[in-house]
Structures are given as structure tokens and as C-alpha cells.
Amino acid sequence: MFDARNASRAGGLMSAGLVLKAVSAMALVGVVGLLMLAPFGASGKPQAACLPLAPGQAGDANTSVKLRQNQIAFARIIDDVAVKRGLPGQATLVALMTALQESQLQNLSYGDRDSVGLFQQRPAAGWGSVEQIMDPRYAAEAFFGGVNPPDPPGLVDINGWPSMSYNDAAQAVQVSGFPDAYGQHEEAAKSIAASAGINLNRPGDPYAGRAGAPPGGGDDAQALTDNSQCGQGLISGQPVNGVWPPEQQTIADPTGTGGLVTPRTAAWVALARKSLGTLSMSCWDAHAWNPTSDHPRGKACDIMVGGDSRRSAPIKAEGDRIANWAVQTAAQTGVHYVIWYGKIWSAKRGTWIPYNGGGVYVPTDVTGGHFDHVHVSLY
């Protein structure tokens, strides 16, 4: 990462220093031609399109057996630290996702600036000496944080981390210049954990080892349960209270269906587009097969995510992003309920529960279970 604390790799790019180290290593075995892979422009920065992926980087199908064995070994060390702390399995998952992004879960003796180790922690940022950080157990303890040194906040020091997506929990610790890079490693982390015999669903105290009383009143434990049930990454919380007077359908649907929606729905569409960027969205619909739906009432929108999220981690992550934003802003926008990935969240309940299809849809179907779109209904 490119802040004062850590260094991060994103999208398979390697720093110029890492490229030079790779070139030097390969030259020792006679692969001089690798020098052709790292041209530099006038600015002295590597041309990203010409750089090969780091071994095992996301998108690299040629992860070596040796690399995998090393990843499993380090994963077990990280999890052992978490287990001895009494942390839940999801703390291990966040740590594995972080280490995969930062170092490909390898104990590197180099990195951006003075970053080293599994999590690319920086001595200059107070994470400890090089010798300490290169100890995987020390590095894991430092990542999880708590009452003991070093000073930078670790995971247990982050208020509400269990209610965050795994990506955001990792980012809260790492403060990376690439804040959305960690989520892409969730499936890889789970695969490594399975090979290592790690139980990512075990319960625990999400603030174990923290100085002082943990925040909240047990909500984080509920959030951990909700996340484990919802395909990971979905944000839960408390019920959202508010008074939302009924509105008439008086505004042309801004998604271009030709129907009318309520002012509240139109305002939600405008804010969603501003906050989330370009969305494939449709609101009003006659819904002849389900006339009690909020769509013909102008109070609901469907946001398509581009395919079956059960078969694509990036599509699942996009749906999580949309659903989480709808939940997080419900108190300001008047969202009544959200359906996504076989789950339903309501403002009155405040948590995600399994979606049964409402007596109209087949919940295991890609559309009926809302695996290809996020449904948002407003008051």
C-alpha cells in the first residue's frame, strides 16, 4: 500500500524494486531474457501492461505445488495464533485474505519501501523490527492487534469489524492505497484454509486480546453469524426505525421502463447511481404474475449484477457491494427490505435471514433466489 504504514500489491502489479529482485534472481539461473519483460518509461516507473504476474497472483492458473504447500504452512501458523487468542474463524479468514494480497501468503524479506513479511508490515510505521516482522507468529499477532505491542491498530482494535465486509475489515488494518483489493482473495483463502484443515466457521470473541471492554452489546457476534449464513460479506445490524409516509406514483421511472414511481424511489435511484456508479437497473414493472409486488406500485428496483453470482466471485462481490450500500443507507433513503443471494434483509428486523421465495418464486432458481440481481423495496 502507498501510505505511511504498509505497502500493498493490487491487480497483480509488482513494484519496480520487486521486478529488479525478480530479474536478479532469474539472471542467476541464466534466464537473461526476463530483462525484456520490465521496460521502464521516462518516469522510471514500470509499464504495468508488460509486467508478469507474481507467482500465485489472482488470475494466475500456474500456482506451483511448492507455493501452495508454503501457503498452507503459513495459514496454519496464522490460524494457530487466532485459535490461541480465542478469535473466531472469520478473523483467520480476514488475515489470510490480507496476506494473500500483500505477499501471496509468503514470508517475503522485501517489498515496497521497507515492507517485509506475510502482511508487508513496515518497521518505519511502528510494526516492529525487520527481525520481528519476519517471524510469522509475531506478524500474525501484530495483524490481530490488541493490548500488546506494536502500536498500529490491529483487527481486534477496529470497532465493528465483524459487521464489515471482509475486504473492509482488512483495509481498516492495512490502510492500503488499493482499498478494494482484498475481497478478490476470499475464495482462494477459503481453499487454502480447507487444505490446511482450518475451521473458518468456529465461534470466538472477535475482540479477544483487546485492551478494555469491546464496543456494542453483542451485535458483532450476531453479525458474524449473519455473514457466515449469507455467503460472506453481507452487512447486518440493528433495526432501522423511521417514519415514511405513503407516496403516490407521480414521477416517470428514471430507469426508462415507461412506468411511474414514487418520489422516494426516484430519489433512491439518483443516489444509487451517484454513489455506486453505472448500474443495470429497472424499477417499475407490471409484474402480471405477481401483482402484489412493489414493482407495479413504483416502490421497488432490481439491480442486475451480470450473471449467476453462485458461479462468479466478482459477481457475488458486486452484489454484496450493492446490497450493503442499500442496507447502510436505509435510514436515510427509506429502504424497506433488500433481497439478494437467497437472503432477505428488512429494516424492521435489521438482519439477514433465508429467503423462501414469498410463495411466488423458487428460491433455488437463479432469478427466484435473487442470485443474478439485487431487489430493493422502499416504503
In short:
It holds the Pfam family VldE. The chain has 379 residues and is of the alpha+beta class.
Q: How would a crystallographer describe the biggest sheet?
A: 6 strands, antiparallel
User: How large a portion of the residues is in β-strands, by DSSP E?
Assistant: 5-15%
Binned, the helix content reads 25-40%
Radius of gyration: 23 Å
- The total of helices stands at 11
Q: What is the β-strand count?
A: 8
N-to-C span = 42 Å
Structural class: alpha+beta
Strand order of the largest sheet: 3-4-8-5-6-7
How many domains? Answer: 2
Q: Report the mean per-residue pLDDT as an integer.
A: 82
The shape is: elongated
Low-confidence stretches: 1-62, 228-232
The helix/strand series, from N terminus to C terminus, equals: HHHHHHHHEEHEEHHEEEE
Fold and architecture overview:
This protein is α+β, with helices and mostly antiparallel strands and 379 residues long. It folds into 2 domains: 16-219, no CATH class; 251-378, no CATH class. Helix content is 34%, strand content 8%. The protein contains 11 helices and 8 strands. It has helices spanning 16-28, 65-85, 89-103, 130-133, 136-144, 166-174, 186-196, 219-229, 263-276, 313-328, 330-333; strands at residues 251-252, 260-261, 280-282, 300-304, 335-340, 343-346, 352-354, 373-378. It has a 6-stranded antiparallel β-sheet with strand order 3-4-8-5-6-7. Strands 1-2 form a two-stranded antiparallel ribbon. Strand 1 (251-252) and strand 2 form a beta hairpin. It is elongated, with a radius of gyration of 23 Å. The relative contact order is 0.10. The model is unreliable at 1-62 and 228-232 (pLDDT under 50). InterPro entries: ARB_07466-like_C. Residues 259-359 form the ARB-07466-like C-terminal domain. The chain crosses the membrane at residues 12-37.
